[in-house]
Amino acid sequence: MSVSLILPCYNPPQEWDKNVHANYTAFCHRIGYPAELIIVIDGHSDGVLPQQLAYLQQQIPTLKLVQYAENRGKGYAIRQGVAIATGAVILYTDIDFPYTMDSICTLCDGLSANQFDVAIGVKNESYYSHIPPVRKAISQLLRAMIKTFLSLPVTDTQCGLKGFRSQVAPLFLKTTIDRYLFDLEFIRNCYRSKKYSMQAIPVALNEDVHFRKMNYRILLPELANFISLLGKRPDEQP
Questions:
Q1: What are phi and psi of 89, to 5 degrees?
Q2: Burial code of 156-186, b = ≥16 C-beta within 10 A, e = fewer?
Q3: Residue-range domain boundaries for the chain
Q4: What is the C-alpha to C-alpha distance for residues 90 and 82, in angstroms, rounded to an integer?
């Protein structure tokens, strides 16, 4: 079973290249074979230095690298990775690997064993003890809105760890939201298609994870994206 691991990258933390190499190596050791690693540089920034990319390409010769100049958003970046992924299982997470290796491998194992088509990481209760109160309130408000207005079986749609089998990739590529709510659009499309089985899987954060300051300017555009999802007819196929 082949696996593709996609990492969107924008303004990564210090030593991110060493962290990626260490976690990629650990992941391949756990699954027992080399995974296809795809890094998508979502716009150039001071945090992405040529020598860091050169280090990764030297350590991982099979690395696939996608780069473009303008920051387009996480959803856009992951679509670029999915478009070139060749694995039978496709996973994506954040460049700093915030979730435990056990969590990543649980999703991978279930998909590899064909237990379900789409694996949705959902944050456990300890997650909320790691984040600022305002961010916690926004997360909980979104979950309440999803439950009330979209009636999805999963309300925690924004966890940064998900995966799916390769036959689901065309549906993922049909998403149109470039930033925060692309995950919600994807899950909603999967649910409405009725073609694929989905499984919510509790995941845990690493103890030393650090969250960036949230850019609150995205809230209004993402509210518009949420409303656009509501506006589509219930019987409309993605």
A1: -120, 135
A2: bbbbbbbbbbbebbebbeebebbbbbbbbbb
A3: 3-231
A4: 8
Please give the pLDDT value at position 238. Answer: 42
Percent above pLDDT 90 for the chain: 72
Pick the CATH number of 3-231 from 3.40.50.11480, 3.90.550.10, 3.20.20.70, 3.40.50.2000: 3.90.550.10
Query: What is the greatest pairwise CA distance in the chain?
Result: 50
Across-strand partners of 123? 203
**182 CB contacts (<8 Å, ≥6 apart)?**
73, 74, 75, 76, 78, 79, 175
pLDDT at 236 over 60: no
- What is the model's pTM? 0.91
Q: CB atoms < 10 A from the CB of 70, how many?
A: 8
Reported confidence tier of residue 171, pLDDT bands at 50, 70, 90: very high
